[in-house]
Amino acid sequence: MKKIAISAVFLIISAVLIYYIPSFSSNMPPDEDLPQVVTVSASFKDIKQKVKGRGKIISAQSSEIWVEDITDIKTIHVKQGEKIKKGQ
To answer: In terms of residue numbers, what domain contains 20?
Structure first.
């Protein structure tokens, strides 16, 4: 009798896991919701000019620029705090 009860408990636990595990994976965002690669079709100087007045430059070195609070500048699409690399 004890073996039947233990088997029943394992069967119920297995059924619950089989039912709920697929729903956990469906809560993951689809690939299109993830941040996409930023493509910059401008020189570094052009990026600095376009950013000026439209957002806040956090830092700018010779090879990269960090911007904040910019959503759309012509062909440059960035999100807050996203990194834009030269020649990307």
So the answer is: 2-85
